[in-house]
C-alpha cells in the first residue's frame, strides 16, 4: 500500500513574512515537518510550493534521500484566498504516480513527529475501518458560548480535571485519507474518521510572532528531554566561530585565509586516542576548511550543510547512536537545534547570546583561542568518570 505525504507551502505570508523558511531554532520552519516525514513510513513526500528559494533549498539539502520531491505549485493555488483543498486536488490531478493513502502535513505544526504520522497511517490501514484520520489534542478547558452560557460543563457541578473527559480539538498537524475518499469528497478528511491524539503542546500553531516565540521555547525544551547520562562517543563541531575566530579574510581573488588554533588540533588528536570520533559540519563550502580538516585527519567532514539538525538526526540513526552519545560545539543560531538535542553541548566564550542561553557548557576560551581544546579536556574527564561508575 503506497502512501504519500503532501506539504503545501506558500511564499506569501502576511502574519509572519517568509514564515515557512524563517529559521526556527536555526532551521527553516518547514524542515521540522519534512524531516519527520522522511523518518516516517511514508513512501514519498511532496513539497508543493511557489517559493523558488524553497525549491532550490530542497534540491540542495535533501539530495541524500529519494523520498522527497519538490514541485512548483500554480499561482492560483498559492493566493491568500485559495484553500488547501484546492492545492491538494491540483496536485493529485497533475501527478502520474498512483497512491493508496494521502497524508497532508502542515509546516506550521513543527511538533509533528514520525510516530504521529505513522499512527495516522495505521489508523486508516489497520482493518480498513476508517476512511481518514486526523490528529487531535485532548483539552480540559471549559468552553463558553458568546451569550454567557457554558458549552461543555455544568457551572453548578464543576468537574475535577481528573474526572473531566475534556474536548478533542483539531490541531492541524496531520491528516490522512484514502485515495478513493479524497477523490470522491475532494476534502482532506471524509467518511469514517479516526482521531489520533498528540501531546497538548502541539495545539500551538504558528500564526503570529507570539506563537513563534512560544513554539520555539517548547520545541527547545522537547529536544532537551533527549539528553541523558551516557558515554560521549562522537564530537561534532561547527567551523566558523568554533575552529576559527569567525572572521574571513578576503583579497581581490576571494577568500584568502582563516585563523585556526594549533592547540585545538592537538586536543582533537588526543581525544581520538580516547576512542571519541570527531566529525565536522558547516554551512560554508570552503576549500580552506577542507584542507585544514584533511591536515587534522578528520574524515567525516560535511560542507555546505544548511539544515544541520537533519544531518545530525541521520548520523544518529545511521550509526545506531543515541543523541546522548553526541557532544556538539556551535556558536550561532544555525547550531541551535543541535545544541539543544545533543547529549552535551558546548559554545565558545565569544558565541552569540542565544546559543549561550541553551548550551550546557559555556567555555572560558574564545573560538580559535583554545575553546575546542578546553572542550576536549572536558569530554575526556567526563568519559573517565562515566566509565568508572
From TrEMBL:
Cofactor: Mg(2+)
InterPro entries associated with the record: CMP-NeuNAc_synthase, Cytidylyl_trans, HAD-like_sf, HAD_sf, KdsC_fam, Nucleotide-diphossugar_trans
Pfam families, alphabetized: CTP_transf_3, Hydrolase_3
The enzyme's E.C. designation: 2.7.7.43
Superkingdom, natural source: Bacteria
Cleavable signal peptide: none
Pathway terms, separated by semicolons: Amino-sugar metabolism; N-acetylneuraminate metabolism
Keyword Magnesium applies: yes
Keywords annotated in UniProt: Hydrolase, Magnesium, Metal-binding, Nucleotidyltransferase, Transferase
GO MF terms held by the record: hydrolase activity, acting on ester bonds; metal ion binding; N-acylneuraminate cytidylyltransferase activity
Top-level class of the enzyme under EC nomenclature: transferase
UniProt record, GO biological process: N-acetylneuraminate metabolic process
Alphabetized CDD domains for the sequence: CMP-NeuAc_Synthase
Keyword match Nuclease: no
Reactions performed catalytically: an N-acylneuraminate + CTP = a CMP-N-acyl-beta-neuraminate + diphosphate
Family of the protein in this entry: Belongs to the CMP-NeuNAc synthase family. Belongs to the KdsC family.
Oligomer and partners: Homotetramer.
UniProt-recorded name of the protein: N-acylneuraminate cytidylyltransferase
Amino acid at each position: 500500500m503506497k502512501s504519500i505525504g503532501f506539504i503545501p507551502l506558500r511564499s506569501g505570508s502576511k502574519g509572519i513574512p517568509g514564515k515557512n523558511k524563517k529559521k526556527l531554532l536555526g532551521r527553516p520552519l518547514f524542515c521540522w515537518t519534512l524531516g519527520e516525514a522522511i523518518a516516517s513510513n511514508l513512501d514519498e513526500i511532496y513539497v508543493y510550493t511557489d517559493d523558488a528559494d524553497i525549491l532550490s533549498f530542497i534540491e540542495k539539502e535533501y539530495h541524500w534521500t529519494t523520498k522527497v520531491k519538490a514541485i512548483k505549485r500554480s499561482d492560483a493555488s498559492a493566493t491568500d484566498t485559495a484553500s488547501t483543498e484546492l492545492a491538494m486536488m491540483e496536485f493529485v490531478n497533475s501527478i502520474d504516480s498512483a497512491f493508496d493513502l494521502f497524508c497532508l502535513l502542515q509546516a506550521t505544526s513543527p511538533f509533528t513527529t514520525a510516530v504521529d504520522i505513522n499512527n495516522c497511517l495505521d489508523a486508516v490501514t489497520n482493518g480498513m475501518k476508517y476512511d481518514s484520520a486526523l490528529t487531535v489534542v485532548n483539552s480540559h478547558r471549559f468552553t463558553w458560548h458568546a451569550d454567557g452560557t457554558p458549552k461543555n460543563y455544568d457551572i453548578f457541578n464543576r468537574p475535577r480535571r481528573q474526572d473531566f473527559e475534556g474536548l478533542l480539538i483539531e490541531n492541524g498537524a496531520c491528516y490522512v485519507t484514502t485515495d478513493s475518499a479524497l477523490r470522491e469528497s475532494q476534502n482532506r478528511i471524509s467518511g469514517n474518521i479516526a482521531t489520533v491524539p498528540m501531546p497538548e503542546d502541539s495545539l500551538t500553531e504558528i500564526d503570529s510572532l507570539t506563537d513563534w516565540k512560544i513554539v520555539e521555547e517548547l520545541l527547545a525544551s522537547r529536544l532537551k528531554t533527549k539528553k541523558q547520562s551516557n558515554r560521549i562517543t562522537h564530537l561534532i563541531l561547527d567551523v566558523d566561530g568554533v575552529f576559527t575566530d569567525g572572521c574571513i579574510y578576503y583579497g581581490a581573488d576571494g577568500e584568502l585565509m582563516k585563523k585556526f588554533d594549533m592547540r585545538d588540533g592537538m586536543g582533537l588528536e588526543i581525544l581520538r586516542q580516547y576512542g571519541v570520533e570527531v566529525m565536522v559540519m558547516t554551512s560554508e563550502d570552503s576549500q580552506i576548511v577542507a584542507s585544514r580538516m584533511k591536515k587534522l585527519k578528520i574524515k567525516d567532514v560535511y560542507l555546505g550543510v544548511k539544515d544541520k539538525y537533519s544531518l545530525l538526526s541521520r548520523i544518529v540513526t545511521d550509526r545506531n547512536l543515541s543523541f546522548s552519545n553526541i557532544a556538539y560545539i556551535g556558536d550561532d543560531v544555525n547550531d541551535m537545534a543541535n545544541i539543544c538535542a545533543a547529549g552535551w553541548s558546548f559554545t565558545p566564550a565569544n558565541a552569540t547570546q542565544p546559543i549561550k542561553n541553551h548550551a550546557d557548557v559555556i567555555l572560558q576560551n574564545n573560538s580559535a583561542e583554545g575553546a575546542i581544546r578546553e572542550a576536549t579536556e572536558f569530554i575526556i574527564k567526563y568519559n573517565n568518570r562515566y566509565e568508572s561508575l
